[in-house]
Specification:
By secondary structure, this protein is mainly alpha-helical. It has helices at residues 9-29, 33-56, 62-86, 88-93, 95-116, 125-143, 148-171, 182-185, 189-196. The protein has two domains: 8-86; 88-198, no CATH class. Helices cover 77% and strands 0% of the residues. Helix 1 runs antiparallel to helix 2 (33-56), helix 1 runs parallel beside helix 3 and helix 5 packs parallel to helix 7.
């Protein structure tokens, strides 16, 4: 359990995304597309804010990284649920591509929980780029309608990011936070220490 008294300002922004999920589900339930879209926009904005604050104020922590990852995953899932209800035709027309992107993500999560007992918090550059593409696409679709080149970009980045995450899971024996990417992991002392301990 988290001790809320120890939360810093960046943690609270991450925690907001988690707590916003029931509200977003309620807006979906009542068919409030416009309110849902604006609230989802706020959730995506807090994702950028908490990372900036953590770096700027030098208050990064394992707890904060995990909260950030949980908030990101829940925001992605609630965004997809919103699309299912508000853009059902688009989802049905592109279901195969969506499944192609979602299956590797499910595999990655399963491997992470099997190995670490929790989700990863690598926060790679590719993951951040993929998250930005996802956020822009989902919000653009909700506010203005589909843009297919953005949709395809999101799918490609999502698959590449998931493959990199799976690779990193196999590279690190123990759970770690904030790995910039595969090439940075090759020189990461935390990975080298883990391997040398065997």
């Amino acid at each position: 359990m988290y001790n809320f008294k120890n939360f810093n300002i960046a943690d609270w922004f991450s925690f907001y995304r988690i707590m916003a999920v029931p509200l977003l589900l309620g807006l979906i339930w009542y068919g409030e597309r416009e309110w849902f879209s604006w609230m989802l926009l706020i959730s995506y904005a807090t994702d950028a804010i908490d990372g900036f604050l953590a770096r700027r104020l030098k208050i990064s922590s394992a707890r904060g990284s995990q909260l950030d990852s949980i908030g990101d995953q829940l925001t992605l899932i609630i965004g997809l649920i919103g699309l299912f209800f508000f853009e059902n035709t688009f989802i049905r027309d592109n279901l195969i591509l969506i499944i192609i992107a979602f299956v590797p993500y499910s595999i990655q999560m399963s491997i992470a929980f099997a190995k670490y007992g929790k989700a990863t918090a690598f926060h790679t550059y590719l993951a951040k780029l993929s998250a930005v593409a996802q956020g822009i696409f989902v919000l653009w679709l909700l506010f203005f309608g589909p843009v297919y080149w953005l949709f395809y970009t999101m799918i490609v980045l999502g698959v590449l990011e998931t493959v990199e995450e799976i690779t990193l899971i196999f590279m690190y024996d123990n759970w770690v936070e904030d790995v910039k990417g595969y090439f940075w992991a090759l020189k990461d002392k935390r990975r080298l220490v883990n391997n040398n301990d065997q």
